[in-house]
Amino acid sequence: MRRVRRRAVFKNGDCNVVQKHLQRRRLRFMQDMYTTMVDWQWRWTLLAFALSFILSWLFFALIWWLIIYTHGDLEELHLPDNQEESGWAPCVSAIDGFTSCFLFSIETQHTIGYGVRTTSTECPEAIFMMCFQSIYGVMSSAFMAGIVFAKMTRAKQRAQTLLFSKQAVICQRDGSLSLMFRVGDMRKSHIIGAGVRAQLIRTKSTKEGEVMTQFFTELEIGSDDSGSDLFFIWPMIIEHKIDENSPLYNLNATDMLHDRFEIVVILEGTVESTGQSTQARSSYINTEILWGHRFDPVVLYNKDLQAYEIDYARFNETTQVDTPLCSARELNEIYKIQEGFRTPAETTFTMRQLSHNHSDQAS
């Protein structure tokens, strides 16, 4: 029976975390209103964007209506059609009701200036309100435009085009067992200063008897001999060598199926086109690790195009290879015993025999 661990990080990078019993949650979120609105879903952000303008237009239209009403511009003899005959000087020309006040509010806030409705020197309060609404319009437009721009350029959006292989694999490399997974980038604009990390989440018991169900262990990983810093121009295989310092050192193929753990992988870097930092995440649980498999090549040189060609159809493809089913610790012990006493051909035969024996036991 395979024991499947509950995920902390989903395959798409979202964290499987729910918060509850937060004190003064709404107040704290309102104090950081900008971040709160950036984190909103698009439908709520666009709704707030529209309401911020419509409500402000209505509010200032009401203020303009009160100014004009108290000045007497809405009396029958003072309406625009009768102003020339009565010689009346209004606060704002061409205003005959709330609808025209609403239109004047929009023109003032966004500095449209159609040239029909204009303020006069008859009402100081109208001059002050015109200045105040113009300043408010600039600030509100800048604030809402900044929120929309921040949502469109979030690191989460760029992470949608960063790929992780669906499964990780374990096989031998240079005589040692290695855990490997593949990362790729769909865009032509590269990730500058790309770096990759991996952390193992599993249960650990301390000497004092404390059980830590979410214990994080950093895994030493790298690509080829370049370490964790990548020149990320095509898909790369990230390798974790299972040696004495690895938390997977004592796990064999059977233990891998029964143990409960999760490996969270993180790819970070700077987006070349925008200069912003981005982060992509994924994870592998024990049932998503293929023992005795190796990734197929996806980068080939095309002579016709005279360029390296990447076949993303084979991004998740693996090939089964002969791999001992014992743990890395047992494998190293066998190497130490056989060192100097057997030829390389005899050592290879012993590894295959050990693999078959473990296969029979697992079945």
Automatic annotation (TrEMBL):
<dbReference type="GO" id="GO:1990573">
    <property type="term" value="P:potassium ion import across plasma membrane"/>
</dbReference>
<keyword id="KW-1133">Transmembrane helix</keyword>
<comment type="similarity">
    <text>Belongs to the inward rectifier-type potassium channel (TC 1.A.2.1) family.</text>
</comment>
<keyword id="KW-0406">Ion transport</keyword>
<dbReference type="GO" id="GO:0034702">
    <property type="term" value="C:monoatomic ion channel complex"/>
</dbReference>
<keyword id="KW-0813">Transport</keyword>
<dbReference type="InterPro" id="IPR013518">
    <property type="entry name" value="K_chnl_inward-rec_Kir_cyto"/>
</dbReference>
<dbReference type="GO" id="GO:0034765">
    <property type="term" value="P:regulation of monoatomic ion transmembrane transport"/>
</dbReference>
<keyword id="KW-0851">Voltage-gated channel</keyword>
<dbReference type="InterPro" id="IPR041647">
    <property type="entry name" value="IRK_C"/>
</dbReference>
<dbReference type="GO" id="GO:0005886">
    <property type="term" value="C:plasma membrane"/>
</dbReference>
<keyword id="KW-0407">Ion channel</keyword>
<dbReference type="InterPro" id="IPR014756">
    <property type="entry name" value="Ig_E-set"/>
</dbReference>
<feature type="transmembrane region" description="Helical">
    <location>
        <begin position="44"/>
        <end position="67"/>
    </location>
</feature>
<dbReference type="Pfam" id="PF17655">
    <property type="entry name" value="IRK_C"/>
</dbReference>
<keyword id="KW-0633">Potassium transport</keyword>
<keyword id="KW-0472">Membrane</keyword>
<dbReference type="GO" id="GO:0005242">
    <property type="term" value="F:inward rectifier potassium channel activity"/>
</dbReference>
<keyword id="KW-0630">Potassium</keyword>
<feature type="transmembrane region" description="Helical">
    <location>
        <begin position="126"/>
        <end position="150"/>
    </location>
</feature>
<feature type="domain" description="Potassium channel inwardly rectifying transmembrane">
    <location>
        <begin position="9"/>
        <end position="155"/>
    </location>
</feature>
<feature type="domain" description="Inward rectifier potassium channel C-terminal">
    <location>
        <begin position="162"/>
        <end position="333"/>
    </location>
</feature>
<dbReference type="Pfam" id="PF01007">
    <property type="entry name" value="IRK"/>
</dbReference>
<protein>
    <submittedName>
        <fullName>Blast:G protein-activated inward rectifier potassium channel 3</fullName>
    </submittedName>
</protein>
<dbReference type="InterPro" id="IPR040445">
    <property type="entry name" value="Kir_TM"/>
</dbReference>
<keyword id="KW-0812">Transmembrane</keyword>
<dbReference type="InterPro" id="IPR016449">
    <property type="entry name" value="K_chnl_inward-rec_Kir"/>
</dbReference>
